[in-house]
Write a structure and sequence with these properties.
Oligomer: single chain
Strand content: 5-15%
Radius of gyration: 18 Å
Number of domains: 1
Order of helices and strands: EHHEHEEHEEH
Length: 163
């Protein structure tokens, strides 16, 4: 299902989405400095979604179409897909375990890898029970330096975004 948005409003939507992404990144950077890493991940992921919205709107503008899918306003995976069609894939990883899962058992060694996704955002936000380990988890593993790099690189992509 689509909605019709005039091209001048699409341009405004791109600008607003990029501004919102920048705001999320600024807030995330502050949270990283306060060691609130899981909360920073949530805001970085929101920034990625807003950037993805801008990418999708730019595609419509460049195609000369004023028909915008309603999913662009509700589908997290669609916005992620659009964002990662432009963002470098190495920015997806927010934590890499010290040991290779090919050589070490995850119950005994840190083999975990965390990547950006809608599920990662939920895992960073809410407490959940891990059936495998039989433990309560209150967040995810995060590398603060990786987060700062991701913030910087997404800012660069926003600054260089053309439409």
């Amino acid at each position: 299902m689509t909605i019709r948005i005039p091209s001048e409003k699409i341009v405004k939507g791109i600008k607003v989405s990029l501004e919102k992404a920048k705001q999320h990144l600024l807030s995330a950077e502050v949270l990283v400095t306060k060691n609130c890493l899981n909360d920073a991940v949530v805001l970085i992921e929101f920034a990625i979604e807003e950037f993805g919205r801008a990418v999708a709107l730019r595609e419509k503008l460049q195609a000369g179409s004023e028909d915008i899918e309603r999913d662009l306003f509700i589908n997290h995976h669609l916005k992620y897909e659009k964002a990662w069609s432009v963002l470098p894939p190495e920015l997806k990883t927010i934590y890499e375990g010290t040991f290779s899962p090919l050589n070490f058992h995850p119950d005994d060694f840190d083999t975990e890898t965390e990547t950006m996704s809608p599920q990662t955002r939920l895992d960073a936000t809410f407490v959940h029970f891990d059936e495998h380990t039989q433990e309560w988890k209150k967040g995810i593993q995060v590398d603060p330096e990786k987060l700062l790099t991701i913030i910087k690189r997404i800012r660069e992509n926003i600054a260089n975004f053309k439409w």
